[in-house]
Specification:
This protein has 563 residues and is of the alpha+beta class. Helices cover 52% and strands 14% of the residues. It folds into 3 domains: 175 residues, Formiminotransferase-cyclodeaminase, Chain B, domain 1, CATH 3.30.990; 165 residues, 2-Layer Sandwich (Alpha-Beta Plaits); 202 residues, Up-down Bundle (Four Helix Bundle (Hemerythrin (Met), subunit A)), CATH 1.20.120. It contains 17 helices and 15 strands. The strands form 4 sheets. Strands 1, 2, 3, 4, 5, 6 and 7 form a 7-stranded mixed beta sheet that branches. A 4-stranded antiparallel beta sheet has the order 13-14-8-15. The model has no long low-confidence stretch (mean pLDDT 92).
C-alpha cells in the first residue's frame, strides 16, 4: 500500500532569534517518520516559515509539539514585524502531497486543531478547506485585526474559536490551522531582457489578468465599474498569480508565478500558456525554473502530457517520464536539475526500505545466493512477476510505435501505463516480502519473562505473521491482474514480439505459484481461522485461473508460430 504523505508549513512569529527557531525545529525532528525540509527565517517580517513532511499521524504529532514549544518560547506582547500575525504560531496549514485527498487532509487539520485547543490554552480558528463555516475559509478574514485585535474579536459570538478557549492568551495569541492545496513557485525564462514584455505575458496568463483600458492597453484610460473600481480582464489561467521581472544574475526576464492549486492549473498547463502568449508577442520561452520542492505527480503529469503531445506511449518508466518533463520544460536551463533534490517523495525515500530493488542484477543474484535467509522465494516471486509484466509492457510500447499502427498509439499507451503500474507494485513487494520476514524474526525476539510480555509477544508474532501472509497474497493478485495485459499483447500486439509476451505469461504463473507456497507456509500455525480460510480459498482460485489462462496463452502462441 502506498504511503499517504502530507506537508506542514507552520509560520512562527520569530525570525531573528535563531536559537528559538532551533528549539522549535528540534521538537519537529524528534518525531520518527517526519522529515524537516526547509527553515526560512525573515528578519524584517520577524517570522519563520518551516516546512516538514511525512505520513499524517507523525506530521500531526510534530505540528502539535511545535505549536506547544512556540507558545512556551515566543511572547507576542513584544512581537513586532512587517507581516500580518496573530499568534506565536500564526498559521499551520496541512497540505496533501501524495495518495491522500484534500478532505482527508482537512480531517487531520481539524484533529490537530481540536488537540491544540484541548491541551493548550490557545484559541484556534480553522481556515481554508478545514474551515467550519464559509466566512472563515479566507485566512485574511480570520487574521483581520491581528494580535492587537484579539481581545475584542474573542468577545464577539461570531468569532468564537473553533477550538480552545474564547479568552485572550496574551503570550501565545491565537493560531489558524487549515488545509490548503500545494503551492508551487515557478518561473518561466524568456529570450528577452524586457521586464515590461515579461509582464505582458504575466497579465495574459494570471487569474486576475490586467486592468481594462480604452484604446492603448498600456496608457489608455482605465475603465471603471459602477462603484468606481477598475474593471479587470481576467487572464487565461485559474489559481495562478504572476508578474514579470528581470533577473540580473541570469541576464534574462522571467515570468514569476505562484500556482496556488495545481489540480486546477498544473505546471505543464501554465508552461504551455506562457509559450503561446510569448509566441503571439514575438518572444520565446527558453526554459523554466522550479523554486522549492514539488510532489512527484507534478513532474509525472507533465512528462505524460508531453509524451501524449508527441503521440508517444506514456507507459514508460517513472524515470523516463521525469526525463521527458525536465527536457520539455527546460528545467535544467539555468542550473542542473536533480529530481532527487526537488521531488518530495524522493527526499523521503528510505534506501533501507528499497534495498533489494536498488541493486544491480549481479548484486541481487549474489545476495539471493548468499547464506542469508532473505531475500527468499517470496521476494523472487515478486521479482519474477515484475519481469513478466515488464515483458508485456515492452510489447505494448513497441506496438504503439509500429509503422502503420499510428492510429492505435493511444490504445497501446493505455496498456503500457497499466503495465508500468503493475510492475512498480510488484517491485515494491520484492523488498516488502523481506521486510515481512524480518518482522517475524523481530517479534520472536521480544522478551517473554512475564505473563504480560508473553501475551504481547504472542500478539506481535500473530500480527507479523498476518503481514507475511498478506504480502505474497498481494503478489498473487497483482501477478494475476497482469494476465489481461499479457493476453491482449499476445493477440493484439506487435506480432514480432508474441513470444516475449508469452514468456511474460510463464513468469506471471511462476510468480503466482511461488507466492502461493509462501502464503500456505505462513498460514501454518496462524490462529485466525476465518482469515486463513478466506485467504486460502481466494489463493486457490487465483492459482487455478492462472493455470488456465497461461495454458490458453501458450497454446495460442504455438498455433501462431506453426502457421
Amino acid at each position: 500500500m502506498k504511503k499517504q504523505l502530507i506537508e506542514c508549513v507552520p509560520n512562527f512569529s520569530e525570525g531573528r532569534d535563531l536559537s528559538i527557531i532551533k528549539q522549535i525545529t528540534d521538537v519537529i525532528e524528534s518525531v520518527p517518520g517526519v522529515k524537516l525540509l526547509d527553515v526560512d527565517p525573515g528578519k524584517a517580517t520577524n517570522r519563520t516559515v518551516v516546512t516538514f513532511v511525512g505520513e499524517p499521524a507523525p506530521v500531526v504529532e510534530a505540528a502539535f509539539l511545535a505549536i506547544k514549544k512556540a507558545a512556551e518560547l515566543i511572547d507576542m506582547r513584544t512581537h513586532k514585524g512587517e507581516h500580518p500575525r496573530m499568534g506565536a504560531t500564526d498559521v499551520c496549514p496541512l497540505v496533501p502531497v501524495s495518495n491522500i485527498s484534500m478532505e482527508e487532509t482537512a480531517q487531520f487539520a481539524r484533529q490537530l486543531a481540536e488537540r491544540v485547543g484541548r491541551e493548550l490554552p490557545i484559541p484556534i480558528y480553522c481556515y481554508e478547506n478545514a474551515a467550519t463555516r464559509p466566512e472563515r475559509r479566507n485566512l485574511a478574514s480570520v487574521r483581520a485585526g491581528e494580535y492587537e485585535g484579539l481581545p475584542d474579536k474573542l468577545s464577539r459570538p461570531e468569532w468564537k474559536p473553533d477550538f480552545g478557549p474564547a479568552q485572550f492568551n496574551a503570550k501565545a495569541g491565537a493560531t489558524a490551522i487549515g488545509a490548503r492545496d500545494f503551492l508551487v513557485a515557478y518561473n518561466i525564462n524568456l529570450n528577452t531582457t524586457s521586464e515590461r514584455r515579461a509582464n505582458s505575458i504575466a497579465f495574459d496568463v494570471r487569474e486576475k489578468g490586467r486592468v481594462k483600458r480604452i484604446g492603448d492597453p498600456i496608457n489608455g484610460e482605465v475603465v471603471l465599474d459602477e462603484k468606481g473600481e477598475p474593471v479587470r480582464e481576467p487572464g487565461a489561467l485559474k489559481a495562478v498569480k504572476a508578474i514579470g521581472w528581470f533577473i540580473e544574475e541570469y541576464g534574462i526576464a522571467q515570468i514569476s508565478m505562484n500556482l496556488t492549486n495545481i489540480s486546477v492549473t498544473p505546471l505543464h498547463v501554465a508552461f504551455e500558456a506562457c509559450c503561446q502568449s510569448a509566441e503571439s508577442r514575438g518572444m520565446r520561452v527558453t526554459g523554466s525554473e522550479l523554486v522549492g520542492l514539488v510532489p512527484l505527480k507534478v513532474l509525472l503529469d507533465a512528462g505524460k502530457f508531453f509524451l501524449q503531445k508527441q503521440r508517444r506511449s506514456a507507459g514508460v518508466s517513472e524515470e523516463e517520464v521525469i526525463k521527458i518533463a525536465v527536457r520539455s520544460l527546460g528545467l535544467d536551463e539555468l542550473a542542473p536539475f536533480d529530481p532527487k533534490k526537488k521531488v518530495i517523495e524522493y527526499l523521503l525515500a528510505d534506501s533501507d526500505v528499497a534495498r533489494l530493488v536498488s541493486m544491480d542484477l549481479r548484486s541481487f543474484s549474489n545476495e539471493t545466493a548468499s547464506e542469508s535467509v532473505a531475500p527468499g522465494g517470496g521476494s523472487i516471486s515478486a521479482y519474477v512477476g515484475a519481469l513478466g509484466v515488464s515483458l508485456a509492457t515492452m510489447v505494448a510500447n513497441l506496438s504503439s510505435h509500429k509503422r502503420q499502427w499510428d492510429d492505435r498509439w493511444e490504445e497501446f499507451s493505455g496498456w503500457a501505463e497499466k503495465g508500468q503500474q503493475l510492475k512498480d507494485d510488484l517491485l515494491r513487494l520484492v523488498d516488502e516480502d523481506t521486510n515481512a520476514f524480518n518482522g517475524i524474526l523481530e517479534a520472536f525476539r521480544l522478551p517473554k519473562s512475564s505473563d504480560e510480555e508473553k501475551a504481547a509477544r504472542k500478539e506481535a508474532i500473530q500480527q507479523a505473521t498476518k503481514f507475511a501472509i498478506e504480502v505474497p497474497f498481494r503478489v498473487m493478485r497483482i501477478s494475476y491482474d497482469a494476465f489481461e495485459l499479457i493476453q491482449s499483447m499476445v493477440e493484439k500486439g506487435n506480432p514480432n514480439s508474441i513470444t516475449d509476451a508469452g514468456v511474460g505469461a510463464l513468469c506471471a504463473r511462476a510468480a503466482i505459484h511461488g507466492a502461493f507456497m509462501n502464503v500456505k507456509i505462513n498460514l501454518k500455525g496462524f490462529k485466525d481461522a476465518a482469515f486463513a480460510e478466506s485467504i486460502l480459498s481466494q489463493a486457490n482460485e487465483i492459482v487455478a485461473r492462472a493455470d488456465e489462462w497461461e495454458l490458453r496463452i501458450r497454446q495460442y502462441i504455438h498455433q501462431e508460430i506453426e502457421k
